[in-house]
Inverse folding.
């Protein structure tokens, strides 16, 4: 299992970073749309109680058809990205009060499926707009989230005593989260020079990046909530040793819209 997980991880990293670096923005947008919105919507439907393949395929195709024109329309990024703000505010509230609201999601499966549109679409659109600005922003964000996850894991193992969300993810600790934020502060400082940020913006970029790391944890925890409510370990089985697409992009779903909005404001 570990060997399979490592091999899948290596292939994923190579494909993702090659696509980010060498694909023109329109092609990057279409390919990332198929993975994040297409496969993501398929798995989201399964987590929210829609098991019939015909219904899942119909819903997935409808979301893809609605998303595709955004690649070619010259819409201001903020028009789409601001949709995610009230959605994630509601999600944060849901995480805070869990498990008092356990079972709510099964009883309201249809609204939860509709919510998936307003989670998946802005996240994909944010990555698309970042790539249009400079492909390095996409690479930076992916590395930021991955570094935060790694730092949280090792800091938590070494110093972790206080559980962050024991009902959703028993392995996460407050100490691990603190370690993630501190580690990413250094990466943000280096990243500001790598992406050639305008002089004088470094501190604001670091603060934005640390806020994005905190938000990425919310994405991880919310997917854990959906899986716990659905009674499954993984969102899917498309990635050997890694589960589903949502298992790999859960943090990015929350991080990408915030980072893109913050960067647009910063620049």
């Amino acid at each position: 299992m570990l060997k399979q997980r490592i091999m899948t991880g290596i292939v994923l990293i190579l494909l993702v970073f090659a696509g980010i670096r060498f694909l023109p923005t329109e092609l990057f947008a279409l390919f990332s749309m198929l993975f994040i919105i297409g496969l993501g919507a398929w798995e989201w439907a399964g987590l929210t109680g829609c098991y019939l393949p015909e219904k899942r395929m119909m819903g997935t195709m409808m979301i893809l058809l609605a998303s595709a024109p955004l690649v070619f329309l010259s819409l201001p990024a903020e028009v789409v990205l601001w949709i995610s703000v009230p959605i994630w505010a509601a999600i944060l509230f849901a995480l805070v009060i869990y498990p008092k609201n356990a079972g709510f999601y099964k009883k309201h499966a249809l609204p939860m499926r509709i919510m998936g549109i307003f989670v998946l679409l802005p996240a994909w659109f944010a990555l698309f707009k970042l790539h249009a600005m400079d492909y390095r922003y996409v690479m930076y964000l992916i590395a930021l989230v991955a570094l935060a996850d790694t730092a949280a894991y090792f800091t938590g193992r070494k110093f972790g005593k206080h559980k962050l969300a024991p009902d959703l993810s028993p392995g996460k600790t407050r100490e691990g989260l603190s370690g993630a934020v501190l580690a990413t502060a250094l990466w943000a400082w280096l990243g500001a020079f790598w992406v050639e940020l305008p002089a004088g913006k470094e501190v604001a970029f670091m603060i934005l990046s640390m806020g994005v790391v905190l938000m990425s944890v919310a994405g991880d925890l919310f997917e854990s909530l959906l899986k716990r409510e659905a009674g499954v370990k993984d969102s899917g089985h498309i990635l050997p040793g890694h589960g589903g697409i949502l298992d790999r992009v859960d943090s990015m779903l929350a991080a990408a819209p915030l980072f893109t909005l913050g960067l647009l404001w910063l620049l």
